[in-house]
Amino acid sequence: MAIQIDTQACIGCGCCGEVCPQGALELEGKAVVFEQYCTACGACIEMCPVGALSLPKQ
Ligand code: SF4
Ligand code: SF4
Fold first, then answer.
1. CA of 9 relative to ligand 2 center, distance in Å
2. Which fold has domain 4-50?
3. What residue segments make up the domains of the chain, in order of their start?
4. Whether the model pTM is above 0.85
């Protein structure tokens, strides 16, 4: 399971990448997740100013 990014909502601020302990988020204009590194810890969700990050429902 990996974080999901609403690319319509993402404004490319980069805040999420700064807090990710796994280095799983990179900015390529907008946020991109490396799913193999994401542990779904949720730390990035609270950092996003536009609510573009979420964990998939189980
Ligand atoms: S959920 Fe955790 S590991 Fe995954 S991208 Fe966000 S901060 Fe990184
Ligand atoms: S914190 Fe939110 S708006 Fe900023 S780059 Fe990450 S997903 Fe996009």
1. 8
2. Alpha-Beta Plaits (3.30.70)
3. 4-50
4. yes
5 pairs with which residues across the strands? 53
SS3 19: helix
Nearest ligand to the CA of 33 is: 1
| Any atom of ligand 1 within 6 Å of the Cβ of 43 | yes
User: Ligand 2 atom 3: the closest Cα is on which residue?
Assistant: 10
Ligand nearest to the CA of 14: 2
CB 16 within 8 A of CB 48: yes
- Percent pLDDT > 70 in the chain is 98
Pairing relationship of beta strands 25-28 and 53-54 according to DSSP bridges: unpaired
Per-residue pLDDT of 14-42, as tens digits, reads: 999 999 999 999 999 999 999 999 999 99
